[in-house]
Amino acid sequence: MGSIFIFSQLSSTSVSAQSESEVIDERMRHYFESSSELVPWYHLAAIDQYERNIQQVRPDIEKSPGPISLQFPLEYWIGALNPNSLDTSPLSISFFGGNGTDGNGDGVADRTNPSDVLQTMATHLAFYGPNEAEYKAALWHYYKREATVNQILAIAKLYRHFGTVELDAHTFPIPKRYHYSYRGTFGSSRGWGGRRIHEGTDLFAGYGVPVVATSYGVIEVMGWNNYGGWRIGIRDNHNTYHYYAHLAYFDKGIKEGDVVEPGTLLGYVGSSGYGKEGTSGKFPPHLHYGVYKYNGRTEWSFDPFPALRNWERQK
């Protein structure tokens, strides 16, 4: 998948604000209508957003035309032994062990109807329960992939914390009153630790210059890495992992698991890395900023330079 499309996600390029707002309002209405004490709205919203994310980067998955992106495999919906691939009867679907349900009370279990789709997932989640451990078990039973479960948990945590799905704002990682320089070096060769490519953009600045979060997200990793030195990894609601490396030190007010937003202070520019814990000074001070996309199967790096240029103009 080329970086142009992913850049459009990072830069929040979309249809007009009015139509986007209408779509979000419709999604929220569906989430609340299908929620309950056992199934909070943000649990449904996180799954739906995850499905939307992978549809945007996976050509092998059909994109949902409606406001809700969650889609179920046909066999899961109607039952593996059901001879009628067009079955929409809740009674016969249940008879053949299918999971499709009627969410809007019209007597039809329609695999393309948002209410029916969300109610089917809500029924699955309700069987386990509302707390995070139970939600995690429900996700594992359905997706059977740890990385997918962790991604959805992060999205749910963000939606619960902020009380909205409108979390697309971004900002430049270095505040505007500080001096810095950078250029596109994604893909260039690196030699330390073996031949590899540069998976990010280096922003050169003085020691101690603040580094802030570029997006909403959950701190997934924080600590030492022999390549990146003192580094932080943040997972956002678009299946994107934001990587901040070579820091001098972290802001003392943050820790793994914390929720951040654009502009949250993470740490300060340094030159740590390329060795055992505490190694510093092997290169000029700078922030290495990388972004990685997860598509439900694998995670890969893409060039953050276009997004950085866009956020720089916005600031």
TrEMBL record:
Q: Which InterPro entries match?
A: Cell_wall_metabolism_enzyme, Dup_hybrid_motif, Lysozyme-like_dom_sf, M23ase_b-sheet_dom
Q: EC annotation?
A: 3.4.-.-
**Matching SUPFAM superfamilies:** Duplicated hybrid motif (SSF51261), Lysozyme-like (SSF53955)
One GO molecular function term of this record is: hydrolase activity
Out of the domains of life, which is the source?
Bacteria
Which key words tag this protein in UniProt?
Answer: Hydrolase, Signal
Pinpoint the M23ase beta-sheet core domain residues.
Answer: 197-295
Recorded protein name is M23 family metallopeptidase
